[in-house]
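Bug #77: duplicate submission created two jobs. Keeping one. Sequence:
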Amino acid sequence: MAVPIADFLAIVHHLPGATGADSDRWTTFRVAGRTFGYLWPATSTVGLKQTIAEQLALVAERPQVFEIQFTAGAFGWVVVHLDGIERDELVELTFEAWRLTAPQDVVERQGDRLPHEPRESR
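Kept job's structure:
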């Protein structure tokens, strides 16, 4: 069930306009200069922007996987423990964080297509 950090980075890499900036202890992820996520490699956790309702629902449902990070305006940031989440759910939460942050025209171009790594043909 654990999602490796490399998989999270691949998910972010497939989001249009997403960039990452490293600091000593974490990486900040932005789109159009606005933050939608964080990665803390030392603890194998990510912080993702969500609606307040989603933040509260996630934490109430699985407090061993999700924590409240902080609330800012209409958004509730949630800490995700990568060792307790399925990749598909992490894709959806990361995509939602990006959608809440990206400029409307970029979101409209992406539509509802989730960011997936290209699969090798067999």
